[in-house]
Amino acid sequence: MGSSEQDRVWAETQASPEFQDLKRKFRGFAFPLTIAFLAWYFLYVILTAFAREWIATPVIGNINIALVLGLLQFVSTFLIMWLYERHSSKHLDAASEKIRDQVDKELAK
Amino acid sequence: MSSSTLSTILFAVFVAFTLVLVFRAGRSTKKSSDFYDGGGSFSGFQNGLAIAGDYMSAASFLGIAGTIALFGYDGFLYSIGFLVAWLVALLLIAEPLRNSGRFTMGDVLAFRMKQRPVRGAAATSTLVVSVFYLMAQMVGAGALVSLLLGISDPGAKSWIIGGVGILMIVYVTVGGMKGTTYVQIVKAFLLMIGAILMTFMVLWTFHFNISDLLGAAANNSGKHEAFLQPGLKFGKEMLDPATGLVDAGKTLISKLDLLSLGMALVLGTAGLPHILIRFYTVPTAKAARKSVNWAIGNIGAFYLMTIALGFGAAALLSRTNLFRGYKVDVTGCLMDAKGAAIVDGSVNCTTLENVANLSADAKKLLVPVDPSGNVAAPQLAEFLGGGAGTTGGAIMLAVIGAIAFATILAVVAGLTLASSSSFAHDLYANVIKRGKASPEQEVRVAKISAIVIGLISIVLAIGAQGMNVAFLVAIAFAIAASGNLPAVLYSLFWKKFNTRGAVWAIYGGLAAALILLVFSPNVTGAETSLLKLSEVGYRFDFFPLSNPGIVSIPLGFFFGWLGTVTSNERNVQKYAELEVRSMTGAAIGKAAVH
Fold it and tell me: B266 contacts in A (CB within 8 Å)?
C-alpha cells in the first residue's frame, strides 16, 4: 500500500464517528480529571505554605490536619487510578481495539 | 563479623546474582529492539515493578527518610509530590506514548515534525536530564559508602563511584533493556521487603500507635509540635535580622519557593526520559496502563512507609548522630570507623562540641556523618536490629546498606540506558545518518555511547562529590518539567504543534531552567551555595528562588506555543496518523513513514 493510500486510511479513520466518539470519551474523562487532581494537589501545597495555623490544628492525638490532608493525597491518587482503570476497561478498550483491528486490516491490503 | 564486611558480602551477592541475570538476558538480546525495549514483551506487572525500581532512587529512600528525620513533616511533601506526579503519566502519557513511539522520547516528538532538529533537541535534553540525575545518584553512592563502610578518604570514594559506573556500563551494554529491567525488578522487590521490615519494626516499637510515634518524634526532635507541621524546611517565616520581626517580602519568596518545588515534583516525573522509555517495554497501551497502576501501588505503599521510617528515625535515634558532622558512641564520645572512642594523647573521650580541639592525627580518624540526613534510614536499621555494636544491629545495617546500593545501581543503569538509546536512535541514526543506519550499527553505537556516557558520569561525579544530591535531582526534575513535558503534551494533543514549537519548547524550557538555576541562591549568595559567599566574595543570585519551576515550566509551555504560532508549518496528515495511532495502537511498533 502506497504512502498516500495509507494517509487516506488515517484521515478517514480520524474522521469516522467511532473514532471521534472514542476520542471524546477519553478526553472528556482524562482532561477534567487531570485539572481536578492538579487543582487538589496545588490547593494542598498552597495550604501548607499559607494556612500554617489552620493546617497545624490537631485532629486526633498528635495527628494534625496537615498529615490528614497529606494522606488524603494518597487516597485521591489511588482513587483516580481506580476510576480511570474502570472507565478505560468499560468504555475505551473495546472501542479502541476494534478501530485498531480495522485500521491494521486496511493497511495490510 | 563487622557490618561493613557483611554489607560488602551481601552487596557482592546482589551484584553476582544480577550479573547472571544480565548475561542471560544478553544472550537472548539479538535484535536492535531487544536492546532498546527488551523486545516489548514484559507484562504490566513486571514493568510496574521495574518502573518502581527505576523511579525510587537513593533520593527517595535515603533522602526522604532523612529529610523527615531532620525536618519532620516537610520531608513528607516530597513523598506526596513524587507520587501524585504519576497521575500525569497515567492519564495523559503512558498509553499514547506506547502506541505512537518505538524506542525513545524523540520518536513521539519527531512523529510529525522535521526529524533532524526535533530529534537533536530531544537527544540534547535527554542527555542533560540523565547526566544530572546520574551524577546525583553516583555522588549519593559515594556518600553512602563512606558512611556505611567508614571510608572517608575522597580517593576511596572515587574508586567506589568508578566501580558503580563500571557495573552500570556492564549491565547496559551486556543486558540492554531486558537485563536492566531484571535488575530493576530485583531491586524493587528488595527495597519493598527492606522498607516493610523496618516499618513493621518501628510500628511494633510503638505498639502500632501512629500518634505515639509522632509524639515521640516531636519530643525527641526538640521542636515539639512544630516538627509535625509544615515549615521547618520549606516556606519558612523569614525574620529581619535587625528587628527580629517577620520580613514579609522574604517570607513570601520562601513560600513561593515551596510552591515552585511542588510544581517541579508533580510535573517533572512525566518528562523524565528514563521513565518514558519504560512504557515501550510492554506490548500494548493496556499493558502500559496496567504497569503504571502497579507502579503507583508500589510507589504509593513505599512513600507511605517513609512516614514510619522518617518519624521512626526522628523518634528513636540520638539527635547528635543525625544532625552533626561526626559519629559518636553511646556515651557521646567521637568514635573511629571501628566504633572505638578516639583517644587523642591523654584525652580518652572528646565530645562533638570539642571536635576542633582534636590533634591533626586524631581528626583523620573521625567518621563523617552526612548532615543532610542521608544516613537516617541505615542508622535506624542498625538501631532496630539492636543498636551499634550488636550482631542484630550489624546485620540490619548491612542488609539495608546493601539494598541502598542495589537501589542506586538499578537507577543508574536505567539512566544510562535512556541516554545511550537516545544518543544512538535519535542523534546517530536520525540526525547524523539521516535515518540510513542499520539496526546493527545503531545498537553498536548505543553500546559505545553507554560506555562513553558512563565514563563521563564517573568523571563528573568524582568532581561533584561535594555537591548536594537533592540539588542535582532538582535540576533534573526542573529541566524535565520545563522542556520535555510541554513538548510531549503538545505533541500528543495539539493539532497545530510543529517543528519550531517542539524545538523552542525543549531548548527554551531547558535554557530557562538552567539559566535561572545559575542565577539562583543555589550557585552564589549564601553559605549553602555551590560557591560559598565567604569563600568567593562575589554573588550573582539575581533570581531569589532555589527552585526555578514556577517560572521555567510556564516558560517552556509559552515557548512551545510561540514557536508553533510563528511558524506556518502544519502537518494535518501526519496528525491524523498520530492521533489514530496514539488512541488505538494501530500499526504499533512501526516507525512513522517520512
Answer: 38, 41
